[in-house]
Every structure is written in structure tokens, then in C-alpha cells.
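Q: My collaborator sent me two sequences in one message, no labels, and asked for predicted structures for both. Can we handle them in order? The first one she listed is below.
A: Yes, handling them in the order given. First sequence, followed by its C-alpha cells:
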Amino acid sequence: MSLISIIDYGSGNIKSVYNAFNYLCEEGKKKLIVTNNYSEIKKSTHIILPGVGAFQSCISGLKQISVREVLEEKVLNDKTPFLGICVGMQMLATVGHENGIFSGLNWIKGEVKKIKPTINKLKIPHMGWNELEFKKDTNFIKELRKKTNLERVTAYFVHSYNFFLENESEKVVTTKYGQEITAMVSKSNIIGTQFHPEKSHNFGLAFLKTFLECEEF
């Protein structure tokens, strides 16, 4: 049986993430837990890292529950499927520039910087529905295409910072908000989304279902 673990480190959006995955797990008879326990994470077949709030406070939360070592063992060594959502994606970066400069997990090299104001004076934070642009047809995206029409897809965003990747090939999906916004990153067994799939209705559920079922990202 699959064991899907949502990492609990004090982030504020676990309930909506849990509810979305719980719906899918009831369909597929998979076990879903919210945990910060070493032994439970060690047994996990899928790991989800949600995130709401500031980059630095989320990184500090991870440090306080002492799970980085087991996460790196599972994700980097064992290649366990991993999904980071919103700040959970941003924390994959090398550094974040929010209220200072803070080290991230450095699993996907790059920097997280504030969205720049534009001549259109778009509101920051970027909040609401935006159309996605698919840059690469990874295996994950190909599997997602089988579940939904990706010709014109919108997803829900709430954020003020943008992930600038060192390796552009790891940028899979973007959106536009006065500038190009990194909406999804992918590297080996690791994916991250700036948008919230758990709040993105049918497309979001198809995305999460693909995460649970896809054998290669």
C-alpha cells in the first residue's frame, strides 16, 4: 500500500492539501498521513511539502522539526516522489531573498526573489487564477495530458516571490503576471508548483492524481 506523507512543520495550508489528497486516496485505497515523524517519513512512498508564509519562517520550521536529513535521504538518495507546493516549491531553491537572504534546501539551484512592480501596477501579492503555459513535455506532463485538456488551463496562485532557476531546463510550466513567473519546476523525482493544485478545481485534482500515479517524472 502507498503511504503518502504531508510534512507538518507549522505551515498554514495543510488542511486543504490534506482534503484534496484524501479524496484521491479514498478512491485508490492509499494511506494518507500528516506527519513530522522520522520513521513515518522513512516509510513514505510519496512526500508532499506544502508552504504558506515567508521563505525564512518555513525553512526555520523545517529545521525545528529536524526532518531535513530524512527528507534528503528519501528524496535525493531513494528518489521518492516529492511535491513542493507554493513556498514548499520555493524552499527547493539555493537561496531566498525575503526579509534578508536565507539558504534553501538547494535541491534545485536558483534564487527566489520578489516579483518586480510593473508599469501596469499589478497588485502584489499575485492572487487569483492565471493561465498556464507548458514549456516542456516531461513524462509527468504527458501523463497529465491523458487526464485533462492542457490547451488552456488556469490554476490558482497566491504569492509575492518568483523562483529564478539556474538551469532553465528544470522550468516546466510558467505563467504571466507582468513578467514570466515560474509555475512548475521538475528535476528527476522532484516537482514543485507555485500554484496551488489543491485549490485549482478539476485541473488541480488531475495534477495531484498524476503525482500519485506517475512512475517517472
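Q: And the one she listed second?
A: Here it is, processed independently of the first:
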Amino acid sequence: MFGIHDLALFVVSGLLLNIMPGPDSLLIMTRSATQGWRAGSAAALGIGTGTFVHIFAAALGLSAILATSAAAFTVVKLLGAAYILYLAVGMLLSRRGDGVEKTLTVSPLPLRRIYAQGILTNVLNPKVALFFLAFVPQFIDANAPHKALAFLILGAIFNINGMLWCHALALFTAQARARLKLNPAVTLWLNRATGGLFVWLGVKLALAKQH
């Protein structure tokens, strides 16, 4: 149907690819561990929104520009790296609160801001766009009458599966946090450790090559 083939293989492959750790997973786990499952869910929804942007862009051929234009790829890559490093700095600068008891605190972020972070970390990663251009067409017949529609359907399936995994990850992390009863000191250093990983991911993205 719609020129799509090997759908079961596509679903299984998509799930395995979504499980692989990356900046999206780190963002979800950090927000869930520090602010609960609602924050992790907000990050996951933002990531899903960003993924849909890539899916529509690839279906319309816009992502092909990133694959063929070195200048466009470099601009998006550097913007993405800069934003990831910006997030990293915020996490690394988590500090002691100024309350009477001088406890360690991490200021919670509004859910809408966490949602926006999820969108930007995904949209500003050109590797995601190139991934869809390389992966999805393998499951569309060369003679399919409506290739763009088939692409959108497969992209939606991939993203829905990804959202199921991301929300499960948010819930699992939040429950682990509740059971372990992380004190503010652990939460603070979790932010800093994740910030360090984001520095590495930002630098890695900045040095990424087009092919």
C-alpha cells in the first residue's frame, strides 16, 4: 500500500534506532530526573515536534539541500552545536541555592521552555535530516505513485514509535528518581554531568562532516 514495503522491518529498525542514546535521550532523562515525568514528557513532545519538521522537510525535498550544499549543512550544524553548548552551560552553572539552609537547588524550568528545548535540539541537528533522507526511502518502492505521501506515512510511524519510547524513558527515569529519592546535591551534580556530556555532543556535532 502506498508503495511501502517491509513495514515490519521498518518498525523494528526504527525502534532500535530510537533506543540508541543521543542528545534527545539525555535531555529527556535529565528533565525527568530533576523535575519529574511531566518535564521529561514535555521534552519528548518537543523532540517529536522537531522530528515532524524534519519529516515534512525531507518529504518536500528541503532536506536534500543539506545533503548537497556544504554551506547550508555547515550553518545548521554550527547553530545546532551552539544551542547544545548553550544548554550545556546552563547545566554546568547549576549552583547552590541562597535559602536559609543553604541547600543545593536546581531551578525548575517552565514546561513550555523544556518543550522548546526539545524542538531546537532536534531541528538544529542536520544529521537527523540526513538520516531521514538515507533511511526512509529504502522502504519505498521506486515505482510508488505518491512517494512523498509514502515518506510522510513512514515518517509518522517512525515518530510515533519514537514518542512511545521517549515517554517510556521519561516515566522510567522519573520513577527511578522517586524510588532513589535523589537529594538536591545529586540532582545538582546530575545536571553538571549531563552538561559535560552535552559539551562533548556539541563539539562532536560542530566537527561533523556532511558525508
